[in-house]
Design brief:
single chain, alpha/beta, Rossmann fold, seven-stranded mixed β-sheet, 7 strands, globular, binds S-adenosylmethionine
């Protein structure tokens, strides 16, 4: 795990993806989920999205992550909210689910850390025919200098930062059909403020984050690096149909 992901895990931030929880709410408005639906949040982190979906729709929700620390935080959240969400320890590249079972898969800022095509193929396998994939991921414009891109990738432990077109091509080459896809600007102060105004009531900060100065340093240098490069960066919202 990258030192950035370790630090972010220790902080237990509930919506650890560009656009934050507000973006998740906006995207979910596009779906009318019911208790009959099976939803999987891959790389669910501290479980804010998974719990929100369970609470707002009654859908049968799985949250999968390969970090036990994250899953413990997600389970704490579900318990506090009185929700039945199945949190599963597993690898996004080898999903422990049968073929053709899910109505909706969410994957928010996870592909960017992983072998992307492998995980996209797994999503396709697990979705029902007609099922939907919602992916929110960092992207870089083609104009981003190679050295700056390399620095962001190595600092954050990313497996490459595709452009909007490259992301789209990856989903479509795997066999998905585009339903909606758009590029968002990298979150600036206003968007960050909007998310701050909707704080996560169930964020669990690990003891290590309270006592380990290195964790705060890692997160600060991540923020600085992202802001320095924000004119090249953005994030994509990809709504894809199997
Ligand atoms: C940036 S966080 C995003 C968390 C969550 N989706 C959110 O938006 O709050 C990335 C998450 O992916 C998880 N992750 C990383 N590699 C994984 C893998 N191979 N399989 C499953 N989860 C993984 C991390 O533990 C972390 O929780």
């Amino acid at each position: 795990m990258s030192s950035y992901l370790e630090a972010a895990t220790a902080m237990g931030t509930g919506s650890l993806h560009p656009g934050g929880f507000m973006h998740t709410l906006k995207v979910l408005q596009l779906f009318s989920l019911t208790p009959e639906d099976i939803v999987i949040d891959i790389g669910c982190g501290a479980g804010r999205t998974a719990c929100h979906i369970a609470k707002s729709s009654g859908a049968y929700v799985f949250g999968l992550d390969n970090s036990q620390e994250m899953l413990d935080k997600a389970k704490f959240r579900a318990a506090r909210e009185g929700l039945q969400v199945q949190f599963v320890h597993g690898d996004a590249g080898d999903l422990p689910f049968l073929d053709n079972v899910a109505d909706l898969i969410l994957i928010e800022s996870v592909l960017i850390f992983l072998p992307k095509v492998r995980v996209i193929d797994e999503c396709l396998r697990v979705l029902k025919k007609g099922g939907m994939l919602v992916s929110t991921e960092l992207l870089a414009d083609q104009s981003m200098p190679a050295a700056a891109k390399e620095q962001v990738q190595s600092t954050c432990g990313l497996t490459g930062i595709p452009s909007f077109e490259e992301w789209l091509d990856m989903f479509q080459s795997a066999g998905f059909t585009r339903t909606g896809a758009w590029r968002n600007s990298f979150p600036g102060p206003l968007q960050n403020l909007i998310n701050i105004l909707h704080p996560d009531p169930y964020q669990v900060v690990s003891q290590s984050a309270r006592t380990n100065r290195e964790i705060n340093q890692v997160l600060r240098s991540y923020q600085r690096l992202m802001q320095k490069n924000r004119k090249y960066l953005g994030y994509g919202t990809f709504i894809m149909k199997k």
